[in-house]
Protein 1
Amino acid sequence: MIVVENLTKTFHSRTSSNRAVNNVSFTARDGEVFGLLGANGAGKTTTLLTIATLLQPDSGKVTVDGLDVVTDSRAVRNKIGFLTGEMRLTGQLTARELLIYFGQLDHMDNDYINKRMKELSNDLELTAHLDVPIAKLSSGLTQKVSIAVALLNEPHIIIFDEPTTNLDVMATKIVSDFIRDAKDNGKCVLLSTHVLSDAQRLCDRIGIMYEGHLLCEGPLDELLEQYKVKDLEQLFFSLVSGDVK
Amino acid sequence: MLNDAFIIFKKELRNLLKDRRTLFSTFILPLVMLPIIFIGMGAVVKSIEDSARETTYKIEIVDNKDNLFKESLSEYLLWEEVDDQVSDFKIIFPPKYAPGSSANVIISYDSSSRKNQLAVNMVSQALTSYELEIAQNVLSLYNLTYQDLHTINIVLSDTAQEAAQAGGSILAMLMPYFMVIFLFSGSMNAGLDTTSGEKERGSLAVLLVNQVSRSSIAWGKIIYVSVVSLFSAIATFIGLLIAIGLPGGSDSLLAGGLLEVGFDPISLLIIILALISSALVSAALITVIGCLAKSVKEGSSYVMPLYMVVVIIGVTTMYMDPSKNTLLFVVPIVNTIFVLKESFMGMYAISHVVLTLTSNLILAVLQAMAVSKLFNSERILQTV
């Protein structure tokens, strides 16, 4: 379970400051998909990077399965699988070599790496492509390898930042199917997206972010009823335009 | 920490060795570039020389009908006498010139042609030979020969060590320049790709959420970039040895005898240590820049001015003797060039070597700490 309490994060440059996340709180539970929605620059990625221990909060508290992301960062990293849509695996290494590389860096022994590689390649239908250089794989297969890398350590918490960005229809389906499977297996999945249809299809609960603020949070049905709108798109635009409060 | 750094180093190196294009630009290009340049330039020079020898030049001789001069000219080049404006050369003697009298002889020619430049040398030699013949004829009237006037014979005795003579000094001039250039340029591609390139591809974030320490990541990448730049420099060295060993390779461009220059084991060891330490400095510097840059493009814009500085240092030190100024041996790149020069000439000073290695290693460690700090900071993830 991920618990975010009053998270605030500001980026400073020489000439200006940008409060990317402003007093954001939400909880993503086990066995559910929590979707963070928002336009580019809303603060979704900053929130996810903070949970993944890559950024430090200015104030507030973030815990992953009860572990503080600042003080227990190494233990937190052991529990999470992190995948960003910006990630473009490339190069001449094969999927097998890449999985072994990340496994060794995670201090796994070779038997465990081989066991996980077998499980993941079966689940993601990668077996036939394990020994092909990444540069020669299609975008869908490359995304499958990225997912395998993120899940090699059998994480309980899965964090996906814009996982369907730049993907074609087939590759998008692969990611969607995987997210559903992870949820069914009791994992806690935190997903950020600006694609409203993805959120509507995949998420059990959603939070809508705008200019660093979390405007609302809860199950989609309850939110539609609460704000008296018919669908997610209407809810989103009503909230960001300030038509509903 | 070293174990994790080695895993990262191995992965980066394996990726590079499988990438034919990068392999070509990093190792094969430095290996074949110098032989190609030497062979190409040698062939061009030889072709011009052959052409200059085989051409029949149109020469107008003004105010000298002496057959002795014409015979002398024929000994040096093919020529035909012309009287009009179509001549390649005009050899103008003073009006009323008489053989044996003192005279300014003007050779009028077009210097824009390399062939003409070579031919004018042959004409000059013919004039010198003609002058000698005239002098010989005059002296014979007094039962003397030209040798009777030649009383001093100059003999040069080179006191430099054997390795520093001719071939050694040419190697000492060229090699440090080429090796340092390729050392730095070898770091550039690999260093930026493994840092800002990973940022751009979004794979750095995945690496950072792993269990591996940031110091291990820093050292793994620095060692990888160092090895790449070192091999790039060694490929250049082998390339030059191939170039000067090829038939016509060095003869047309450099003094002969370069291959006879041998290295004693200590000089060779010093060369290798100096290159390793300098590779670490270059690699760490490029890695720092790669970490600070938000993209490969931005990184390249920071690195290019530094590359120009390295080229300028290489060019300005090319004709300099190994320095006695100890302070220069704490300045990176400059110290490596001078230690390489000393080693190629077989006149290394241990104090210079120690100063160079210590200075380079301290700088490399400081830069590695900076890289490690950058990997620990949030700045490492900035791509916009």
Note: Residues 132 and 146 of chain B are 8 Å apart (CA to CA).
Protein 2
Amino acid sequence: MPHFTVTIEETGETYRCSDQHSLLAGMEALGRKGIPVGCRGGGCGVCKVEVLDGAIRTRAMSREHVSVDDEAGGRVLACRATPQTDIRLRVLGKMKRAVCQGAAAESTTTSQMTGD
Amino acid sequence: MAMTGVLRPGHAQLRVLDMEESVKFYTEVMGLIDMGRDAQGRAYFKCWDERDHHSIVLRQADRAGMDFFAFKVLDQATLDQYERDLKEYGVATERMPAGEMLNTGERVRFKIPTGHTIELYAEKKDVGNGMAYTNPEAWVPNLPGIAPIRMDHCLIYGGDIDGNRDLFEKVFGFSLVERIKLEDGTTDLATWLTCSAKAHDIAMVRHSEDDKLHHVSFRLESWEQVLRAADLMSMHRVSIDAGPTRHGVTRGTTIYFFDPSGNRLETFCGGYDFYPDMQPLTWTWDNVGAGVFYHDRKLNERFLAVVT
């Protein structure tokens, strides 16, 4: 199966991802970081990215997090997008933190950009 | 305590992004029994040991999450009384007609302070658990998938969880079983409530957005079954969130995982029996990690942030 190079703009991190895996699954399988990991099913919205260069194929994802305009503009959930070419992307999603600033602080200050 | 008012969680209606994929997941991986579709295209399922017609309803939608969560009450008179009690408490109610949901009687629908829609109903067709009502066998053999015995509880996220607790306690007589306090030592981050002798029938976490689902939970009968469920999830490439591990709160063993639309589910076992004379257990802020994940003793970031 074809593999493509995915580059995360902010960190310069790159990884190889097949056209059979989502951008998120490809990252996770190699233990790489950069895109926040949530439900992996298109429902929660935390892995939203903007594809700056390259072509993707997408599956259904929650309209609560990805509008029609978003989708047309390449702003999609990484768990529902598979690469068709090399990809350069920017991370848009983040873990929503509510009353638990303190709680999550221990884990999130170090992991905000690491995805876990 | 003789249970007379609210008996137990009865059904949850979940939104899914792809019905065909979801039906396959809920039957083949979860091992729920397919109980058919209605005219709106909703799909109905039950766990094998449940006797009523269904406990999970799936609706195709463009976003994930939970439409509503329902409790079964003792009988029609109890349903009518609760509707009066809700109105007296100041909550608007709506009657969903019998038959709007397959094999289900009238439902009383209302919103709780966190924005979630809750339903009460008294009647749902008894279809049995696959074994006889006279001289039954011990269990049903050759069930596919994880095959939990019942849909057990849910955990919801929203703002005014204090208002929720007041309503469930005052109108329906629920008891507070456990709570986690925020850093100020006063405010509840989370509460676990029961209407029965279970450790929880519904739980809630304070959150910036209303009407969010954290998980719907399914009960297994042993820790070994929980491990077997994790094996099946890996075989089917299910998205696992956390576990197998144990919760400090309720002492239940658990796996958090996601359905194909990103709705978090739990398969769990255990927990202790609660009676209304027992005082609630409290977890302090510095032990929140152990309260949620007893072995790791720290929260994963997703616990507080990933909801549908």
Note: The helical segments of chain B are 19-29, 76-89, 161-172, 223-235, 288-292, 301-305.
